[in-house]
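LOG
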Amino acid sequence: MADVKDTILSVKNMSVEFPTLSGVVTAVRNVSFDVGREKVGIIGESGSGKSTTGRAIMRLQPPHALIKADRMQFEDVDLLKASEQQMLSVRGRRIAMILQDPKYSLNPVMTVGEQISETVILHEHVSKKEARARTLAMLERVNIRDPQRVFDLYPHEVSGGMGQRIMISMMLIASPSLIIADEPTSALDVTVRQQVLSILDELVVERNIGLLFISHDLNLVRSFCDRVIIMYAGQIVETIAAADLDNARHPYTQGLLNALPSLEHPRDRLEVLRRDPAWLENRS
């Protein structure tokens, strides 16, 4: 776990519930974790509660969703008690979220430069001239060649890899303390994905901030993150250092690892992931 003095985010027994016509559905149940100035991965299958956890931290759930917790503390902000007005000053400025596909996150009728500049103007109340200068510098920082040209492009005019780098620059230009990245590279090919991860890694280290990296790619998280949280059916079943994943104890984590193909240890047939109903019965 992160050292207490370095803890940016502390979550204790958080649950997220959705009322439906057939009753209350608990999407996340009693999850607890801390994030310091480090890269923490959240791994699990689709529907395991990974993205719901990230959105709950940002308080971006639908109005009818109910978030419960003993503690949801981000730096000096109690996320449970914060008003929507307070959350508006936290989102983007202090906690940034990078989503899966920039095509659906960028405004199609605004140029790339306008959208990034808008973030600085909104949160730091700088002039348009200063915002433009900072935007160009940030575009250059994420390895975009000819930022002057890219500034005036619309989202449909850029590639997926460039779009994701634009998203990273938009989320980091206000210097947040914590980034929540939800499947930020799944829409990219392998080469571009590695470039984007390298940029993200450099910026996290350079700015000494925390990263919550949500993914279903266990190999990617193992090589990129410092610690890994494994989620199953809305609960955390194991938290382990990324370097120690091969020594995981929970059968679900072991099953995920055994279902991965390996060049070092090739097998004729990969194991089928098995699930035990007892894992759900053990939930508190």
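LOG (cont.) second protein
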Amino acid sequence: MPATSNAETLMSVENLCVTYGRGPSAMQAVRGVTFHLGRERLGIVGESGSGKSTIGRALLKLLPTAKITSGRLDFMGTDIIGASERRMLDIRGARISMILQDPKFSLNPVQRIGDQIAEAYAVHHRGARGQAREKALEMLEAVQIRDPERVYKLYPHEISGGMGQRVMIAMMLVPEPDVIIADEPTSALDVTVRMKVLGILDDLVRSRGLGLIMISHDLNLVRSFCDRVLIMYAGQVLEALPASELANARHPYTRGLIAAQPHIGGDRRPLQVLRRDESWKRPLAELNA
């Protein structure tokens, strides 16, 4: 597996497994996932149902009905698997934040925008409630929202999808975490707004020196936005490589995904169809063994 692009490792994940159910009916949604995250942008890409979002939630222990096991799941010296729920409450939001896919399902519809961001700051900075409003306005300005004072007083139904996603980014970044998990944060946006939101997220990640895990099904997005990419299929990481080398992927599944994408200016022949076989369930290291 390629090394992280930064010498400092924020998170180490080794042999992560997530299982639902027990006995003969048990289903392993994630199997043997291993990766390390530095102060970089790591993409996790794959089809729907491949286990991408499950990994993101497992890192925060947000899967109460699942059994999470790992040879190692370390976040800056903290053993996540062995951490108590009280300890996880200190980590979630303050140290590791998660940006979800659609803001209309994540924002409280009966609470003003600014109050929700201020609350996210106050919960993790005890005794700083007087600064919460000021920090919320600063973050609204940081995500390039015009007239933060006006938007602060609005309710979620009064803003657009693009603005809602910026508010979600502001809410997740205001506690000043070390790691951001972004679960398809731009899939509900049109192309123009998507690029603006990604640009904002990129600027904030670079300026604050954060580690970012970008979960997506969009190969072109992770190719242009991320530093490294993990390719997932059926709960496993099949291949890990630098995003700039995605076109040179060696696993047949990754090559199949790339070939199935339409290209502007390409020929008009029908796109290739993914032909699944047993070899696709084996990581690249096993295929080369």
